[in-house]
Write a structure and sequence with these properties.
Layout (H helix, E strand, L loop, with lengths): L26 E4 L2 E2 L10 H4 L4 E2 L3 H12 L4 E4 L10 H10 L7 E4 L2 E4 L2 E3 L5 H4 L4 H6 L7 E4 L6 H13 L4 E8 L5 H18 L2 E8 L17 H12 L9 H8 L3 H8 L3
Helix pairs in contact: 6-7
Amino acid sequence: AGEPIENLTPDYSILDHVEYKYPVNDAYFLYASRGCIRSCKFCGVPDLEGTQRDTGSLIDQVENIISLYGEKKDLTLMDNNIVASPNFKEIIDQIVALGFQKDATLKRNGHQYKRRVDFNQGVDARILCKDPSFLKQISRVNIKPLRIAFDHIGLKKQYVQSIKYAEEFGIYDLSNYMLYNFHDTPEDLYSRLKINIALNQELGIRIFSFPMRYQPIYLQDRSHVGENWDKYSLRSFQIILQATHGIVSGSPSYFDRAFGANKDEFHELLHTP
């Protein structure tokens, strides 16, 4: 057997053979870990990747990419749950050593470009809320945005605390993934969206939400309808999101117009012809 494909250096030349301009093509695509410590029923990672384990040195991975494709401006980590790694601080140390510390820039062709770190799959509020040291470590790097998952309303306390820790350490650009169409209700989703509006106003930060519709990995189409949803509501919500390309803005006035000023208005919008 040969080397597992996940251990190979990404083939950036693939991007040269498509007409589409990939927005984050100028980035190192890396893994510091694979798998996850969780066994969330809605997630395919436990089946696809198994339990969490660290991969090789980020510095070695970057050096391999540079040798083949040249230096990149940004760094994208695609770990499923990076803050769960027992070596999380050492991972942050490596990111800093690679030149992605807070406010880092890259000089290229006589111009200075601001560098960017992205934990692309999001971080775990259930871990972040336990100790402010996690957000303190993350604030050492040029993270933008910080993505935090908010999968159901039962995580409200952990999620809100994580956001407040982030603001405390100067992280003001945030994004979050919001699962829906699983065991949640439309009212559950609306409450989570509204919490972000309130946090934006209270803390003076920017949180953009990305609602993500649950679909079982064993289905080959998007036919799943959650126990508390119906096809019409799912389609209506998708139409609302199309206006902003899937992003829920933190603007209170726009939010109230697009999603309703309260749960009753949201429910009415989902069932409006």
